[in-house]
Backbone:
C-alpha cells in the first residue's frame, strides 16, 4: 500500500519586545538565572498582569500578515497544568477567542504557489527554563524563571503539507515574515523560534487522518526537515508491518538523528481552559487594525514576485535573493547605487556573495563590504574593464581587505585590454606565425579558430578582451 | 448532575490533591450539589446574547514596553524551599 504524509506545524516565536508580556521585567537573553523576575512573573499571590501594548500589536501584525480573520473582540484564557517551569500553575494564553483565525500562508515550492491554511494565531506567555544537571551529585532539576512571561506568539497551521520540501518552504517563508515584520529575531539556536511538526500517515486516497505524532525539541530548520523525514520513514515501516501507531508526542534527538516517545500528552480538555479573570478583553477597532496593517512591510512572496517582474529575474534568482530580508535589502541597495544591470548584480549576489557567506558561515550583516563595492565590481565586468575570471580574483581580494574593486584592478594592472589597434597587432603576429591553423580554418575546421585565440590571449597575458579578440580574428581571417 | 468517584479522582489528580477514599466519596456528593446549583443557569434564555468574560465594560488596558527593575535574585529565591547556584531547585522531572 502507498502512504501519504499529512503534516502540520505549531510554531512558537518569542516577540522582540524589551519587556515581558505582563510585567516590566526585561527579556534579555543569556542573563544570569533568576535575575529578570518580579512578583508578577513569579506568580506571587495578589499580583495583577497588565498587557504589553507592543507585544499585542506585534501579534496583531502577524495575524494580519497571515491573512487571518481578526474579530472585534479578543480575550485571554488560563491553560492549567503543573510543571516546574510554570510558577503560576497556569499559562495565560488564548483559546476561546483567538486573536486571528482562518488565515493562510502562500509558499513557493518548485516554482509553484502552494497555500497552507493557518488555523489560528494567538498570544501567550512563555514558560521558564529547566536545567537537568548531568552530575551524579545533583539529582534535582534547576529552574530559571528569566524567560517566564516572555511574549510568545503561537501559529497553528492546518495539516496541509505533504512532504519535506513543503515543510521547509513553510518554515522559511514564515521565518522570513517574522523577520521582515521585525516582530522576532527568530534565533532558533536560542529557542526564540520553535517549530513543532506533527506528522501522520494515511493510505493515498484515504480522507480520514491517521494517528498524529507531534515532534518536539527540534532546534533548527534542518533538524525539522530531518525529523519529518525520519517520522515518515518510521511510520511507513510500522504501518507496512501491520503495527498500529499511537497518537503521541516524540522528542527529536539531534545527535542520534531519531525521535523517541515522550510521556503521553494530556488531551486538550485536561487543561481546563477558562477565561482569564485578571485581564480585560481587547477590542480591535477597524482604525486600529488599519493602522497596524499600514506598518506591514512588503512580505517575502510579494517581494519575490516583484523582483521577477521589475528586474527581469527568473524564479530561482528571485527566490534566492528574497530568502533572507537582509540579503534582499543588500541587493536593492546595490541597485540603488547602480552602475550595473539588475541581472548582473543578481548573479554576483547569488554566486559569489552567497558562496562567501556560506563558506565563512556568516550572516549578511557581517559581510565585510558595502553594497557599493559589489555594484562597482559588477559594473567593471559589464563594461568590459575586466573579464569574469579576473573579476573572481578581484572579488576575493575585495572581501579579504574590503578594498574598492576599481582600485584593485588599477594597482594590480588587471584591466582588460580592449584597445583594437593594440589587439590587432597581436592578432596579425599570431596569424603570421600559425599558417597551419589558418589553412585548417579555411579548409572548414572550425576548431582551428580556438587554436588561434589561445596564442593571442597568451601574448596579452590573458588581459585582452575575448570578444574583441574574436571579432578581430574573424575579420582578419575573412580578409586574408 | 452527579459526579462519579472516578471523575472526582481525575479532577483531584489534575489539581494535585490527594484524597482519601472517604474524602473522595464526600467530594463527589458535594461537587454534584455545586454543579446542580450552577445548572440553574441553564434555564436562562441566552439566545442572541454575546458571551462575555467580565461584568465590567472596561477593555484595552495596556502598559507601554518600558522595562522596570526586577527583583534582586536573592529576594526572588527567598521563599523557595530549595535553591542551588541561583536556581530554584525541585525534584527531578525527567529520567
Ligand atoms: Zn516580571
Residues:
Amino acid at each position: 500500500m502507498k502512504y501519504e504524509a499529512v503534516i502540520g506545524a505549531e510554531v512558537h516565536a518569542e516577540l522582540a519586545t524589551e519587556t515581558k508580556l505582563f510585567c516590566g521585567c526585561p527579556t534579555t537573553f543569556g542573563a544570569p538565572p533568576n535575575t529578570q523576575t518580579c512578583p508578577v512573573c513569579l506568580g506571587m499571590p495578589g499580583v495583577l498582569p497588565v498587557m504589553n501594548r507592543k507585544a499585542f500589536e506585534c501579534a496583531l501584525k502577524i495575524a494580519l500578515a497571515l491573512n487571518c480573520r481578526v474579530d472585534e473582540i479578543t480575550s485571554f484564557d488560563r491553560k492549567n497544568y503543573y510543571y516546574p517551569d510554570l510558577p503560576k500553575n497556569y499559562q495565560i494564553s488564548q483559546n476561546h477567542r483567538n486573536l486571528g483565525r482562518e488565515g493562510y500562508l502562500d509558499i513557493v515550492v518548485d516554482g509553484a504557489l502552494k497555500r497552507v491554511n493557518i488555523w489560528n494565531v494567538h498570544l501567550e506567555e512563555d514558560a521558564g527554563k529547566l536545567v537537568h544537571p548531568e552530575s551524579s551529585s545533583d539529582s534535582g532539576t534547576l529552574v530559571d524563571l528569566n524567560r517566564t512571561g516572555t511574549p510568545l506568539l503561537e501559529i497553528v497551521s492546518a495539516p496541509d503539507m505533504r512532504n519535506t520540501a513543503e515543510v521547509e518552504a513553510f518554515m522559511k517563508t514564515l521565518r522570513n515574515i517574522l523577520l521582515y515584520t521585525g516582530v522576532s529575531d527568530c534565533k532558533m539556536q536560542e529557542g526564540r523560534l520553535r517549530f513543532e511538526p506533527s506528522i501522520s500517515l494515511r493510505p493515498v486516497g484515504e480522507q480520514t487522518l491517521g494517528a498524529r505524532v507531534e515532534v518536539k525539541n527540534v532546534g533548527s530548520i534542518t533538524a525539522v526537515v530531518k525529523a519529518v523525514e525520519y517520522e515518515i520513514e518510521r511510520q511507513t515501516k510500522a504501518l507496512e508491518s501491520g503495527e498500529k501507531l499511537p497518537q503521541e508526542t516524540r522528542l527529536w534527538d539531534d545527535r542520534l538523528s531519531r525521535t523517541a516517545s515522550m510521556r503521553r500528552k494530556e488531551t486538550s480538555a485536561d487543561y481546563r481552559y477558562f477565561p482569564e479573570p485578571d485581564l480585560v478583553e481587547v477590542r480591535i477597532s477597524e482604525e486600529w487594525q488599519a493602522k497596524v496593517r499600514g506598518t506591514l512591510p512588503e512580505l517575502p512572496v510579494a517581494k519575490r514576485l516583484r523582483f521577477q517582474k521589475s528586474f527581469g529575474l527568473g524564479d530561482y534568482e528571485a527566490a534566492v535573493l528574497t530568502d533572507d530580508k537582509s540579503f534582499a535589502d543588500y541587493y536593492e541597495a546595490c541597485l540603488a547605487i547602480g552602475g550595473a544591470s539588475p541581472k548582473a548584480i543578481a548573479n554576483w549576489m547569488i554566486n559569489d556573495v552567497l558562496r562567501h557567506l556560506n563558506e565563512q558561515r556568516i550572516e549578511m550583516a557581517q559581510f565585510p563590504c558595502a553594497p557599493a563595492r559589489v555594484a562597482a565590481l559588477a559594473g567593471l565586468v559589464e563594461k568590459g574593464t575586466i573579464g569574469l575570471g579576473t573579476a573572481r580574483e578581484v572579488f576575493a581580494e575585495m572581501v579579504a581587505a574590503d578594498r574598492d574593486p576599481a582600485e584593485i584592478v588599477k594597482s594590480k594592472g588587471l584591466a582588460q585590454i580592449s584597445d583594437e589597434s593594440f589587439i590587432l597587432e597581436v592578432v596579425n603576429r599570431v596569424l603570421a606565425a600559425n599558417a597551419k591553423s589558418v589553412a585548417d580554418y579555411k579548409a572548414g575546421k572550425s576548431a582551428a579558430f580556438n587554436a588561434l585565440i589561445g596564442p593571442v590571449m597568451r601574448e596579452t597575458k590573458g588581459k585582452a578582451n575575448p570578444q574583441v579578440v574574436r571579432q578581430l580574428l574573424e575579420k582578419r581571417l575573412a580578409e586574408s | 448532575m452527579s459526579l462519579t468517584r472516578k471523575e472526582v479522582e481525575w479532577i483531584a489528580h489534575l489539581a494535585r490533591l490527594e484524597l482519601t477514599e472517604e474524602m473522595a466519596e464526600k467530594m463527589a456528593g458535594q461537587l454534584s450539589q455545586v454543579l446542580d446549583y450552577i445548572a440553574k443557569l441553564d434555564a436562562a434564555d441566552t439566545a442572541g446574547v454575546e458571551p462575555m468574560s467580565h461584568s465590567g465594560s472596561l477593555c484595552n488596558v495596556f502598559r507601554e514596553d518600558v522595562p522596570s527593575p526586577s527583583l534582586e535574585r536573592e529576594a526572588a529565591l527567598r521563599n523557595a524551599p530549595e535553591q542551588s547556584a541561583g536556581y530554584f531547585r525541585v525534584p527531578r522531572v525527567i529520567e
